[in-house]
C-alpha cells in the first residue's frame, strides 16, 4: 500500500518514522510537509526521535507539490487551521478506494468529509504527545509505555467496524496499540476534554503539563474546564469514554464534590505526560495561529448552543487569543492571576 503522512510535524514525524520502520518493505510510506528545511533534513539524515524514545529512522519525505499518484491511506495530521491548504491539493491523489484518517485535534471529521467525501473519511484520537525540536528532529514527550498501550483510538463516523478501518489499524499498530471504536464521536469528545484541560491550560499559562499539575490554582481551574466539557457533551447527546486506562466521565464535578476531589485522577493519568507542552503553545512560540477555536473555542460554542455557560473555557480562549494578537508567549505568573 501507498501511505502518506500528511503533516509531518511533531507527531507526524514520530508516527511516520515508526510506521516506516515497522512496515519495512510491505508499504510505501511518505512523509509530507510544507517546511522545506524539515523535508530536506528528513531525506538527508532520517527522522530523529528524542525524549522518551531515542531513535533515527531513514524516511522518504516530500513537499505537498511533490505528491504523485494515488495514496491508499492518508494519515492527516495537519493543524485544522490549515485544512483548506492541505486538503485541496490532496484530492487528485485519492481514488474511490482511498481512506483519509484524520488524527487532528478537536472534532474534524465533518469538515474533512466535506472535502474528501464521507465515504473516504475515518478518524481517531492520538494518546501521546510530541514537541517539534528542529528540522528532522521531534521529541516524544509522553512515556514510550504510554505510546505502546494507548497510541490511538480510531473508528468510522457511523461506528461500523469495516475492512478499511481494520487496515488503518494495522498500519497505526506499528506505532503502538490501536483500538477500533464503535463510538467515534464519544471518543472525540473525550479527547476534546483531554485537550481542553491540559493543552488549554498549557497554552493559556505558557507552561508544561507538569507545571499545571504542580499548581493548585491551575488545577482547580482545569477541573472546572473538564466539568464544562462533560456537561456540554452530555447536552449534545455524547458521553465520555474509557481512555488512558480511566473512566473519563468520573471527572464531572457532581453535587457536593469539589475540584480537589479530582486531583488524584489527573495526577494518575497526566503524570505520564508531565514533560508535554501543548502544540498550541508551540504555535504561540512560533508566532503562528493555534487551534484554540477548534478545542476550547469549540466547547464554548457548543455550550452556547445548549444555553450552557462555559466561563473557564471562555477565559482560556480569551487569554490565548490575546497572546496570538500581540504575538507573545503567555507568562505563567501573569496569567495564573486570571484564574
Q: Globular, elongated, flat, extended or rod-shaped: what is the shape?
A: globular
Strand content: 15-25%
Q: Whole-number radius of gyration?
A: 19 Å
Helix content: 40-55%
CATH superfamily of the largest domain: NAD(P)-binding Rossmann-like Domain
- Low-confidence segments, given as residue ranges, are none
Q: Could you name the CATH topology of the largest domain?
A: Rossmann fold
- Can you tell me the number of structural domains? 2
Overall mean pLDDT stands at: 95
Instruction: Let me know the number of strands.
Output: 14
The CATH top-level class label of the largest domain: Alpha Beta
- Roughly how many Å apart are the termini? 50 Å
Identify the CATH architecture of the largest domain.
3-Layer(aba) Sandwich
Count of DSSP-assigned helices = 14
Amino acid at each position: 500500500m501507498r501511505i502518506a503522512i500528511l503533516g509531518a510535524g511533531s507527531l507526524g514525524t514520530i508516527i511516520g518514522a515508526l510506521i516506516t520502520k515497522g512496515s519495512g518493505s510491505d508499504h510505501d510510506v511518505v512523509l509530507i510537509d510544507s517546511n522545506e528545511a524539515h523535508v530536506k533534513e528528513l531525506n538527508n539524515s532520517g527522522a530523529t526521535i528524542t525524549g522518551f524514545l531515542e531513535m533515527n529512522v531513514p524516511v522518504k519525505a516530500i513537499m505537498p507539490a511533490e505528491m504523485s499518484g494515488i495514496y491508499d491511506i492518508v494519515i492527516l495530521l495537519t493543524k485544522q487551521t490549515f485544512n483548506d491548504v492541505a486538503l485541496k491539493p490532496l484530492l487528485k491523489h485519492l481514488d474511490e478506494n482511498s481512506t483519509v484518517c484524520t488524527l487532528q485535534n478537536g472534532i474534524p471529521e465533518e469538515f474533512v468529509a466535506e472535502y474528501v467525501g464521507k465515504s473516504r473519511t475515518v478518524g481517531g484520537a492520538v494518546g501521546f504527545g510530541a514537541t517539534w525540536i528542529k528540522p528532522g528532529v521531534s521529541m516524544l514527550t509522553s512515556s514510550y509505555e504510554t505510546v505502546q498501550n494507548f497510541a490511538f483510538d480510531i473508528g468510522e463516523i457511523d461506528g461500523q467496524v469495516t475492512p478499511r478501518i481494520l487496515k488503518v489499524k494495522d498500519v497505526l499498530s506499528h506505532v503502538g496499540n490501536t483500538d477500533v471504536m464503535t463510538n467515534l464521536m464519544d471518543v472525540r469528545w473525550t479527547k476534546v476534554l483531554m485537550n481542553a484541560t491540559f493543552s488549554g491550560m498549557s497554552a493559556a499559562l505558557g507552561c508544561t503539563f507538569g507545571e499545571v499539575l504542580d499548581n493548585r490554582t491551575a488545577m482547580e481551574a482545569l477541573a472546572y474546564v473538564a466539568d464544562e466539557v462533560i456537561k456540554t457533551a452530555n447536552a449534545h447527546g455524547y458521553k465520555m469514554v474509557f481512555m488512558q486506562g480511566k473512566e473519563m466521565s468520573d471527572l464531572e464535578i457532581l453535587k457536593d464534590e469539589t475540584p480537589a476531589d479530582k486531583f488524584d485522577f489527573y495526577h494518575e493519568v497526566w503524570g505520564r505526560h508531565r514533560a508535554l507542552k501543548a502544540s498550541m503553545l508551540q504555535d504561540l512560540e512560533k508566532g503562528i495561529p493555534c487551534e484554540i477555536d477548534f478545542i476550547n473555542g469549540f466547547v464554548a460554542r457548543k455550550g452556547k448552543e445548549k444555553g450552557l455557560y462555559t466561563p473557564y473555557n471562555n477565559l482560556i480562549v480569551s487569554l490565548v487569543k490575546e497572546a496570538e494578537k500581540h504575538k507573545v508567549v503567555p507568562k505563567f505568573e501573569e496569567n495564573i492571576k486570571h484564574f
